[in-house]
Write a structure and sequence with these properties.
The complex is a heterodimer. Chain A is mainly alpha-helical. The longest helix of chain A has 27 residues. Chain A is built from twelve helices and no strands. By secondary structure, chain B is mainly alpha-helical. Helix content of chain B is about 70%, strand content about 0%. Chain B contains eleven helices and two strands; from the N terminus they run H-H-H-H-E-E-H-H-H-H-H-H-H. Chain B has a two-stranded antiparallel sheet with strand order 1-2. In chain B, helix 1 crosses helix 9 and helix 9 packs parallel to helix 11. Chain B starts with a helix and ends in a 13-residue tail after the last helix. The chains are: A mainly alpha, B mainly alpha.
């Protein structure tokens, strides 16, 4: 039971880092990023491949995070001059392209066979039955640090500019600020968070395969951000906990209804996610825990 | 690579391009008139293909009946989601409709997988031998597929340019406010638009199902190439959509000979980027302000 709670907490904390990045993108800057999982994938594979080459884990995670931020840069240059619906298409295409490349470039990623034997975090430092616990503690600390960092960012002059871009880009331009530059930085910072989350995923699971990075994950994170309220950082935490609670809880629901197979249950789970997207956009665009008076929504 | 292989790939590209022109046309018209990229279009195609399979499994082996049922079912589903979701979101940002359409895509696909599972299916079509001209192969089935697709496209172009309904549609696409002051009831136009979207996606799905195995990701995997074709042809430009899809499909099939079919999505993405960077209005499009 304890091991189960630790495993779920790790899942929540990894998603929370991603959700924090998406909240910065969408909630604060108004960037419609439909390819968040692409950054997650780059972070995990980069960190895994580096550490397999013998780079120390912590260092490879840092490099992977930086690589992810850099990968977001050209995307920013290209896409941020476009309207928001174009950005959505471009980012979705980006994440699908990343997944296809991971699938096909077998010399690098072993393709569909997956990448096994990635060095585990804390391996040899603590007794092997305590590794997960310490990964959880590390993730908690990293999450706390990142929340603090993002809080500082959104309350800084930079944060005021990106929120202004979200609300009225023309006005920002009229004030002499270049929105593209701010958007690119926001995109890179949020992508770095997803990359960091990915590097944790790699050294926690020790096995990666391209199927872990389907677009569905992006929309899980969207749901988490929506549930918590689109521009509330505390909402990111609440939203992620509720999301993972639902995804995990639905495993137990199966035991109450006889005659539903595992495959059908997976369909039900994703069906509910889709329905939640529709219902939230229709009835609670500011997010379930977003403030009702907030002007912002979709 | 020898010439015969390239010609065969080009022929295959023309067939696939013609049938894919149907859903791409639906997407470009929804983009032009309802003003958002409809991410559910791919899964409407999947729905069409699965409906035809359900008809063949439970009702009769007639492919014609399957095609008709597919068009009907997807049209109903498309209108249902218009009335429930997209009509309500008309006054909101295009992002809200885009996100909702992702939700619709998941709901449609997982309703299918709940009943049909993750297995592969095949549509029953009469097996025929390909005509062989010195290695250049032409399948009679492909000719039927092209005939149906071209017929459907011709019908839409007639409706768009030869009937009052088409004139109203083009007017709403061009300038919704001006259309409204001119006394055009946009609700009616929207309803026809979503019927057309459903029928064309459903028909495209079945025709594709004849050429490929039917899997739950059939349509969603095509979403990127379809968006790329829409943008290549210029958003809201029906003729551009058809020509864009053909160009795209032929070059994709030929390029697949060299880099392998798995890179279709990556190629679509690159084309999308190039068009957006250098010619955002598409090859035939008019300049859209503020894009």
């Amino acid at each position: 039971m304890e091991a189960y709670i630790v495993a779920i907490s790790i899942g929540i904390l990894i998603y929370m880092l991603m959700a924090l990045g998406l909240s910065l993108h969408f909630g604060f800057t108004g960037l419609v990023n439909f390819g968040h999982v692409g950054f997650f994938a780059i972070g995990s594979y980069a960190s895994a491949l580096l550490s397999l080459q013998g780079v120390p884990i912590v260092l490879s995670m840092l490099i992977a995070t930086a690589i992810t931020a850099l990968a977001a840069y050209p995307l920013g240059i290209i896409a941020l001059r476009l309207g928001s619906d174009y950005l959505a298409i471009v980012t979705l295409g980006f994440s699908e392209s990343v997944r296809m490349i991971l699938q096909k470039e077998e010399w690098l990623t072993r393709g569909m066979h997956g990448l096994p034997g990635i060095p585990r975090f804390f391996d040899g430092w603590v007794p092997s039955n305590q590794i997960d616990f310490w990964i959880m503690i590390t993730l908690l600390i990293v999450n706390a640090l990142m929340f603090w960092l993002i809080l500082r960012v959104v309350r800084s002059p930079f944060g005021r500019v990106i929120e202004a871009i979200r609300d009225n880009e023309v006005a920002v331009r009229a004030l002499g600020k270049d929105p593209a530059q701010f958007k690119t930085r926001s995109l890179m910072l949020g992508a770095a968070l997803a990359g960091l989350a990915g590097s944790f995923q790699a050294h926690y699971l020790t096995f990666l395969s391209p199927e872990q990075f389907v677009p569905l994950i992006t929309f899980y994170i969207w749901i988490a951000v929506f549930i918590g309220g689109v521009n509330r950082l505390s909402g990111v935490a609440v939203g992620t906990i509720i999301l993972v609670g639902f995804l995990e809880g639905s495993r137990f629901v199966k035991d109450f209804f006889g005659g539903i197979s595992e495959v059908q249950m997976a369909s039900v789970r994703i069906w509910v996610i889709g329905m939640a997207l529709i219902l939230i956009v229709l009835y609670r665009p500011q997010g379930i825990f977003g403030s009702k008076t907030a002007k912002r929504g979709v | 690579m020898d010439a015969v292989a390239i010609i065969n790939a080009a022929i295959n590209g023309i067939v696939i391009g013609t049938l894919m022109a149907l859903p791409v046309l639906a997407i470009t018209m929804v983009f032009g008139i309802a003003r958002f990229p409809n991410a559910a279009a791919g899964d409407y195609m999947t729905l069409g293909a699965y409906t035809a399979i359900a008809v063949q499994t439970f009702l009769s082996s007639s492919l014609v009946l399957g095609v008709l049922a597919a068009c009907l079912v997807t049209a109903l589903v498309s209108v249902f989601f218009y009335l429930w979701v997209f009509r309500t979101l008309e006054s909101r940002s295009n992002i809200s409709r885009l996100i909702a359409s992702i939700g619709v895509a998941f709901v449609v696909r997982n309703t299918i997988t709940f009943f049909a599972g993750q297995d592969q299916y095949n549509l029953d079509v009469p097996l025929v031998r390909a005509w062989n001209f010195d290695g250049i192969r032409i399948l009679p089935t492909d000719l039927y597929i092209m005939a149906i697709a071209i017929g459907a496209l011709a019908l839409v172009f007639y409706v768009l340019h030869g009937t009052p309904l088409g004139r109203r549609m083009r007017a709403v696409a061009d300038n919704p406010d001006l259309a409204a002051v001119s006394g055009i009831r946009s609700r009616r136009v929207m309803l026809y638009l979503w019927v057309l979207c459903g029928v064309f996606c459903g028909l495209g799905g079945v025709l594709l199902g004849i050429k490929a195995v039917v899997v739950p990701e059939l349509g969603f995997e095509l979403l990127m190439p379809m968006f790329a074709a829409v943008i290549l042809g210029g958003i809201g430009n029906p003729l551009g959509a058809v020509i864009g899809t053909l160009l795209f499909s032929v070059s994709q099939e030929i390029a697949s000979l060299y880099v392998g079919p798995a890179y279709k999505i990556v190629m679509a993405f690159l084309v999308l980027l190039l068009v957006l960077l250098f010619r955002p209005q598409g090859i035939f499009g008019r300049v859209m302000a503020a894009r």
